[in-house]
Amino acid sequence: MQPGLVESKERTWRCGGGDDLSTYFSRAPWSQDVASAQVGALCIMSRRGIFTKGLQPTSSCKSSNIQSAKGNEVTATTMQKWILTASLILPLALCVSGAAVPNNANCKAVHIIVARGTNEEPGEGPQGPIADAIENMLGGTADSAALDYPASIFPTYAKSVATGVTNMKKMITEYATRCPQSKLVLMGFSQGAQVIGDTLCGTDEAFFPSTEPIAPTLGKKVVAAVLMGDPTHVVGAPYNVGTSDHNGWFPRLNDKECSGYDNIRRSYCDDGDVYCDAGTDGKVHSSYFAKYGADAAAFVVSKVKSS
After folding, report:
1. Residue 2 Ramachandran class (φ > 0 left, ψ -120 to 50 alpha, else beta)
2. Cα–Cα distance, 155 to 214 (Å, whole number)
3. What keywords are assigned to this protein (predicted)?
4. Which domains does the chain have, with CATH numbers?
5. In contact, 54 and 85? CB cutoff 8 Å
6. Span 14-34, pLDDT tens digits
7. Which of 183, 188, 196 is closest to 124 using CA atoms?
8. Maximum distance among all alpha carbons in the chain?
9. What is the pLDDT of residue 256?
10. Nearest Cα to Cα of residue 191 among 244, 89, 110, 115
11. Backbone angles phi, psi at 63, to 5 degrees
12. Are 218 and 175 in contact (CB under 8 A)?
């Protein structure tokens, strides 16, 4: 059998990069769909000799046509067959090659998950530079990934938050399982901050469906949680930073029951913020990145080093 191209609609890719499947789950474009992961599966198996006539390895994984050993582009129909083939034989291929999933070479000592704010474009958004600063301060031992969720406004806000919580729990579970020695950091802005709080503490805010907190064994993996402009902000909480003296739109009712996370949380909210302070100044809500970004990065690094 000859491996070939995995294509997702208008995109095609070629092999390259590391020899671990998780490489293909990390950043765009690989993280955007399941087919991308199957590209990684085929590339890995090709390099490991599972297929004797494989894709031609190149120096990078980027948009380009993948060609077979004979130099012919593989059709989308054939691609569908190889997606199925990869999904069926990848576990065996990894087993035969002795590639243990936990603690593999692609695991970082620190993994940052970033939840964007309402109506922001998919990705890490304005929190990205803060995550980058943390990675630099930790000397390349950390990486980051964006939470995939709708981040939509009303009338689907509550559903969007619930989806975010579900996906956040899944990301935490999968990374902790694959990289059990790694530490996790959560960062969220606006709706993303609410998602993080609901993930750790469970959802009990008014007007939102109730959810359970993440399992304690997984919660212990989280060494820092940075919240900016959190609509569930509770005035007077010991982890608050900023000038706010009001509750947010949806103040968390179970905050005391979630006090076990007080030491790792830092929530930034200033007076006048429309969402976390129930104020009237729309500019405040977007000011935290420049105003508190350095403090947030230093907080995370201190928690990583002390945990």
Report:
1. beta
2. 26
3. Disulfide bond, Hydrolase
4. 7-96 (no CATH), 110-306 (3.40.50.1820)
5. no
6. 444 443 333 333 333 333 333
7. 188
8. 69
9. 86
10. 115
11. -60, 125
12. no
Tell me the whole-structure pTM to 2 decimals.
Answer: 0.68
Q: Are 201 and 161 in contact (CB under 8 A)?
A: no
- Which tokens hold the place of 213? 């907190």
Selection from 192, 162, 219, 222 nearest residue 289 by Cα = 192
Give the DSSP H or E segment for 267: strand 265-268
End-to-end CA distance of the chain: 49
- Distance between CA atoms of 244 and 233, rounded to whole angstroms? 9
Question: What's the rounded mean pLDDT across residues 25-54?
Answer: 37
DSSP one-letter string for 147-200: --S----TTSHHHHHHHHHHHHHHHHHHHHHH-TT-EEEEEEETHHHHHHHHHH
> How many CB atoms are located within 10 Å of the residue 290 CB?
10
Nearest to 164 by CA among 197, 133, 141: 197
**CA atoms of 205 and 91, how far apart (whole Å):** 42
Tell me the two tokens of residue 87.
């999904």
Q: Which of 85-94, 255-264, 290-299 has the highest mean pLDDT?
A: 290-299
Q: What are phi and psi of 209, to 5 degrees?
A: -65, 140
- Respond yes or no on whether the N-terminal peptide bond of residue 155 is cis (omega within 30° of 0): yes
* Letter string b/e over residues 196-207, b meaning 16 or more CB atoms within 10 A of that residue's CB: bbbbbbbbbbee
Specify the DSSP element, H or E, that contains 110. strand 110-115
- Residues in Cβ contact with 172 at an 8 Å cutoff, skipping those fewer than 6 apart: 113, 184, 199, 214, 218, 221, 222
3-state SS class at 145: strand
